[in-house]
Each structure stands twice: as structure tokens, then as C-alpha cells.
Specification:
32% of the residues lie in helices and 31% in strands. It has helices spanning 13-27, 41-56, 103-114, 132-140; strands spanning 3-7, 61-67, 72-82, 87-94, 122-128, 144-149, 158-164. The model has no long low-confidence stretch (mean pLDDT 94).
Length: 165
Amino acid sequence: MDIYIDRLNEQDAKELFAFECKNRRFFEQTVQSRGDDYYSFGSFEIRHRELLKEQDDAMSSFYLIKEDSGTIVGRINLVDIDRIKGTAQVGYRIGEAFTKKGVANKALQLLVKLAPDMNVTQIHAKTTTVNIGSQKVLVKNGFERISVREDTSEKLPLYHYRKNL
């Protein structure tokens, strides 16, 4: 499947909301729920504007993963960008109908290529210990597992990864 990543913008709210709602149960199998409020369009719009502000302030960079037709198949983000240290945290989620097709792998490759333009030289990632697919994507893209930690906000321990660019 051919995909590209497209920087999040104001016009994406409705389509992104539909994507999140459609995949809610699937996502919540491996990550903590974002809560019922997130799935109310009014609350979602507020959060969407907050993300755009964070992006404008260069604290994060949010992307939609799209297939050639322009359909959203996932999301990938660099957050907590520290331009002095050159670090950021990556996160991604792929819609259920698009898993096991190389989408996360390709999207991560594309994002890693963009990271130096944001003065990022080291990317961190974390995943639950049960999210085998995400672990494989990180390792395939040259991330090294550096620790296992309990996280009070997650139900499961987390694997922490790092990649130096």
C-alpha cells in the first residue's frame, strides 16, 4: 500500500474524528482509552485546536497517514520536541483495516526523514508490552529497546525505545 504523511491542519477535524470513532475499540485493545469526552465532536474540536496550537508553537508535529486516495489510515506524531537537546517522542496508531500492510513501518520511515528538519537527533518511543506489532515496527526502523518501566497511567508495563539519527 502506498502511503504519505500529511501535516495536521484545521480542515482535518471531521475526517479525523470519524477515523478515531471507527477505530476506538481496536485502539483500546492495546492503549489506554482517551475517555468518552474525546468521542464527543465538541470536545474533539477543542482538543484538535489545542494540537494545532502546540504544533504552531513547534512543541510537536502531528501528521495524518493517508493512502493515495487521501483516506486517513493512521496518525503519527513527534511530541515533546526539545530543540536544545534534540529529542522528541514518537507515537503512532494505525486503523484496524490497515494493519499488517506495512503502513506503520513506512510512516515511521517518512517521519524519521523529517525529524532533522525539526532539529531532532534522537527519537524516543514507548509501547505496551502486549503491542507486539508496534515493537516490531520500532526494531525494524532501528530503534533500540532501552528499558521496561511501570507507568501509572497505563495498565501494563511499557517498553521504552530510542533511535539516534
